[in-house]
Design a protein that fits this description.
The chain contains 31 helices and 17 strands. By secondary structure, it is α/β, with parallel strands linked by helices.
Length: 774
């Protein structure tokens, strides 16, 4: 018997609007066993009218129907793999390979079942499971790479023709659909495959013979491709501009960061030089020399940096400052975390200089200095007793300093990339005790650090003057501001427990929470909130982008389980649903807070790029634009592109309703263009995805629904070619200023930023890159 859990796994998601558990089987289209194509002629006319343009412009060209990938397109690569298998398995004694090695030889090793079907079609015999010689392999390779399109479509037809009688029936097509779906990691049920096969037969079998032949399949391939997005009418700005120099692009994109960093460095340098010169004229200089000046100069920069490091994490203040366009145009608020890290690096340098010169130079010189010089200079500060090195280490000043360094070292090391993200390169025993939670808790050692810093600054070897004990002057305002923010957050979040309206669990361990919007809660599209679950921890707060629009009367977030806290959150909600609990676990929110995507209102044209769950910041933006009744009057983008790249077909369920809502109104479609990319499917042009592409085009033409995303938005195969995408955008929007917003892994961020610079320098279109960075 099929359980609730197994039905949930097959359906792709389970949606819950009440504490009681219920599951829903999801079919990639409005399916029914008795459904028939009611518009076959309409479908054919659509394909005929648009097929020519598609073949010319679509990224998938039927003339590139490939049975081998790039690694197998050269015979020498196939031959090399053949010899490698022969050498490895037979020690070079044989000159044949097993039939099961055919896929590996042609570069299709990760698709063994498809390779078997292909070999069966190439051999054209019922008994085809025998060893392959090199000559036969070369003959098969020549046929697979035949430049003649009809020859390759005939080979594809032979793959469908299971009984090799020259006729392909509905059952033959169904079997190849299931094989193609499995090869591309798609979930297609037998009923769905039968419907798709019937779609092809009803369309092509005009004479109702119950089968089709090779020429009909060739016609279908030539006409079944939808037009590419690149065929859109070019948009030209009224005032064309000349391409900018690279130096100008760098200046325009980096000047805010540059002036802030240079100003910070200038202050640090000025403070260091000031104290360095000051202590070079003190009597203690005769004992410790330039070591003393270096230590005191670095100490002054440490005071400054220990104050400034709190400012970038005063999120409420930054969110408030973002609202003032004049201020936000000068300060790079999107880089607040990066600046926080930069200052932390400055503190590390300061600690090394200050602590290092004291321990390695100043203290040994004090303990080993000439007694007469000691008495004439600094003896009064030590009670006229020249201390030993050990006695100096035991003083309050040094003990607190060492304690501060130890606590800083712990917090700093656990905040680096590898421990915080539990890098697989670290030993398992280490990974078990590190992670985001460890980073979060260790970072709160700063409370003890600041307390020790005040004590450390009150006990100085060389002065009793209150005017020189200035640490509290540096840190007072930032500490009070930060403490005020934390108190304000605690009060606000304590009164903002979320009244959960709906919980949805999706494949990929994604949790969607839809909650009542608290009274007085106002946010802009692109903002994020912090979420706390007392059942997991009363202290941990984690940031998540809002996926609800500003005009919605609810708040929604989509949380993917990527860490220990999010796994626990998913688990407790799953358990509550399965147990039929009357109430959901309590959750508190804090926010909203500003993010980089808020800047989308500064541009007439925006490009949003989200990888996987990284699409969440842009969903609220799409909702906001779609909710606009007259986008040309209301302040905001005149054109918005969303490129969403995901590995799993089930990911489309996360925002399916939003995509349908966007596609419903023609006016909204003219403003918003959405491009879905499913990277688990082989690139368009690959024989392994060819039949899926054909069915996708047919169903979209007849019913207006994409079979992969279950929305009117067509899904593209494989990973995007970003160079081509930016090239088409630059051509379409000549002379325009385009905001590019990205949320995803850092590696692609660097590539996208380089492309923005490249096309800004080589075309009249200027691309401005922004990356989400909470």
């Amino acid at each position: 018997m099929e359980t609730e859990e197994t039905r949930e796994q097959h359906s792709g998601f389970a949606s819950f609007s009440s504490p009681s558990s219920r599951s829903a089987n999801v079919v990639p289209l409005d399916w029914s066993p008795d459904r028939r194509i009611t518009r076959p002629l309409h479908c054919l006319r659509w394909l005929e009218n648009r097929g020519a343009a598609a073949v010319a412009s679509c990224s998938f060209s039927v003339e590139r129907l490939k049975f081998v990938d790039n690694a197998g397109s050269e015979w020498k690569n196939v031959e090399e793999r053949f010899h490698q298998i022969v050498t490895t398995r037979y020690g070079g004694r044989e000159s044949v390979v097993k039939w099961s090695d055919f896929g590996t030889c042609i570069g299709m090793g990760e698709s063994p079942e498809f390779a078997k079907q292909l070999l069966s079609a190439l051999r054209g015999e019922r008994k085809w499971k025998f060893d392959i010689t090199k000559d036969e392999l070369h003959k098969h390779w020549c046929r697979m790479t035949d430049p003649c399109f009809n020859s390759r479509t005939q080979l594809f037809f032979d793959m469908c023709d299971g009984d090799m009688d020259g006729r392909v029936t509905k059952m033959d097509i169904k079997q190849l659909i299931l094989l193609s779906a499995s090869t591309n990691k798609l979930l297609v049920r037998h009923e769905e495959a039968e419907l798709y096969a019937g779609l092809v037969i009803q369309l092509l079998d005009i004479e109702k013979l119950g089968y089709i032949q090779a020429p009909q399949l060739q016609t279908l391939f030539k006409l079944s491709l939808p037009p590419a997005a690149s065929a859109a009418t070019p948009y030209r700005n009224a005032t064309e501009k000349e391409p900018m120099l690279k130096a100008e692009i760098l200046f325009r994109s980096q000047w805010r960061r540059a002036w802030v960093v240079l100003f910070w460095l200038a202050i640090c340098l000025a403070l260091f030089v000031w104290k360095f010169i000051q202590y070079s004229h003190r009597t203690a200089f005769q004992v410790m020399g330039y070591c003393l000046s270096t230590a005191k100069g670095s100490a002054e920069t440490l005071k400054f940096n220990m104050a400034v490091i709190l400012l970038p994490v005063c999120r409420n203040t930054i969110t408030w400052l973002r609202r003032h366009r004049g201020i936000s145009s000068v300060f790079p608020f999107n880089d607040n975390i990066n600046f926080h890290k930069l200052i932390a690096g400055g503190i590390v340098v300061g600690v090394i200089l200050h602590g290092g010169t004291h321990l390695a130079c100043d203290f040994p010189r004090i303990s080993d200095s000439d007694r007469s010089i000691f008495r004439q200079t600094i003896a009064a500060r030590f009670g006229y007793h020249q201390p030993s090195y050990t006695q100096i280490l035991a003083t309050t000043e040094v003990a607190t300093g060492i304690a501060i360094v130890v606590l800083m070292a712990i917090a700093f090391s656990l905040a680096t990339k590898w421990p915080r993200r539990q890098s697989p390169s670290l030993p398992r025993s280490v990974r078990n005790v590190i992670g985001y939670n460890t980073f979060w808790y260790s970072h709160h050692l700063f409370i003890l650090v600041y307390a020790l810093l005040i004590v450390h600054s009150m006990f100085l070897f060389l002065t009793d003057k209150a005017t020189e004990k200035t640490t509290w002057m540096y840190i007072a305002i930032p500490v009070l501001l930060y403490a005020g923010e934390r108190i304000f957050r605690a009060i606000r979040s304590g009164s903002s427990d979320m009244e959960i309206l709906k919980v949805s669990l999706y494949q990929g361990k994604v949790l969607s929470l839809k909650c009542q919007k608290p009274e007085g809660f106002r946010h802009k599209s692109g903002m994020y909130i912090f979420i706390q679950c007392p059942q997991i921890s009363p202290f941990e707060w984690h940031p998540f982008s809002l996926t609800s629009g500003p005009k919605d009367d609810f708040l929604s977030v989509h949380i993917r389980s990527l860490g220990d806290w999010s796994y626990q959150l998913y688990s407790i909600f799953q358990e509550a649903i399965l147990a039929g609990a009357k109430q959901y676990p309590k959750v508190y929110i804090d926010g909203p807070y500003g993010a980089a995507s808020q800047d989308h209102v500064k541009y007439d044209i925006i490009v949003m790029i989200g990888l996987g769950i990284g699409a969440t910041p842009f969903i609220s933006i799409l909702k906001d634009i779609a909710a606009c009744e007259n986008c040309r009057i209301t302040k905001g983008p005149l054109k918005a592109y969303l490129y969403w790249v995901t590995r799993e077909q089930s990911s489309f369920d996360w925002f399916k309703d939003v995509m349908k809502e966007i596609a419903e109104t023609k006016q909204k479609q003219s403003v918003i263009e959405v491009f879905n990319f499913l990277s688990s499917i082989y690139q368009e042009g690959d024989a392994r995805s060819a039949l899926i592409s054909v069915i996708q085009a047919l169903y979209l033409a007849n019913y207006g629904i994409d079979i992969l995303s279950q929305t009117p938005v067509r899904t593209h195969f494989g990973r995007p070619n970003w160079f081509n995408i930016f090239s088409k955008l630059a051509q379409r929007h000549r002379g325009a200023r385009i905001g590019v917003f990205y949320c995803g892994p850092f590696a692609l961020a660097r590539d996208l930023e380089k492309l923005c610079t490249k096309f800004s320098t080589q075309t009249t279109t200027r691309f401005v890159f922004h990356k989400e960075n909470y």
